[in-house]
Task: inverse folding
């Protein structure tokens, strides 16, 4: 599926659903569609460009495949996430548009390593998800449970037993795991740091007022 000029679509840059327009060159002519001849035969390959009217960024498709921006643009991995966890997540994001299966395997492995770091270690990922659900807020608990449901762990036990294995994915599964990872990053790594920073700021105020610190 491409996003053509004068159509509506969700922008991969700003993730906003809105209208797209033609791309102009510096002589103000529309260059949105280019029909390119393939070598000796007369087959035409279409290079199509459109511009997001919200963020003004350009989206380019070649033969119906998005070539710019490359992949799905996700928010950058928060700096609070430990490097060994962040690495699998970043690689999963990089390959998401090329191989959903590879991205899902990296994302599942990332999830399991993160749970292990939280001292949640069981026989397999499914049992670890059960354990994690006990200490997660309701929305995240439902989301992490969804990984098993959407991924149909019952039919594909390998996803639970050998998380980094390349296995067929269900529709929407890869996106779901990556979205859950983003939520867990915030819960396990970003939010505690935010709280610590607030507490330190408050303690500095209390100290200057000659009052005892918060514990
Ligand atoms: Zn945009």
Result:
């Amino acid at each position: 599926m491409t996003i053509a000029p004068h159509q509506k679509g969700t922008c991969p840059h700003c993730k906003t659903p809105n209208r797209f327009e033609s791309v102009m060159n510096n002589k103000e002519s529309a260059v949105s569609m280019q029909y390119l001849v393939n070598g000796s035969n007369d087959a035409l390959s279409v290079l199509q460009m459109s511009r997001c009217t919200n963020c003004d960024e350009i989206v380019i498709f070649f033969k119906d495949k998005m070539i710019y921006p490359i992949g799905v643009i996700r928010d950058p991995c928060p700096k609070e996430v430990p490097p060994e966890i962040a690495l699998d997540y970043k690689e999963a994001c990089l390959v998401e548009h090329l191989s959903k299966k590879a991205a899902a395997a990296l994302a599942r492995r990332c999830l399991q390593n993160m749970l292990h770091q939280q001292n949640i270690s069981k026989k397999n990922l499914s049992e670890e998800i059960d354990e994690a659900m006990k200490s997660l807020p309701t929305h995240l608990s439902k989301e992490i449970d969804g990984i098993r449901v959407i991924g149909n762990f019952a039919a594909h036990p390998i996803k639970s037993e050998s998380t980094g294995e390349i296995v067929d994915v269900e529709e929407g599964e890869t996106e779901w795991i990556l979205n859950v990872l983003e939520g867990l990053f915030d819960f396990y790594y970003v939010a505690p740091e935010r709280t610590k920073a607030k507490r330190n700021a408050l303690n500095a105020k209390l100290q200057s007022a000659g009052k005892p610190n918060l514990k």
Summary: The chain has two domains: 8-68, 83-203. Residues 8-68 form one domain. Residues 11, 13-14, 16, 52, 54-55, 57 surround zinc ion (CB under 6 Å).
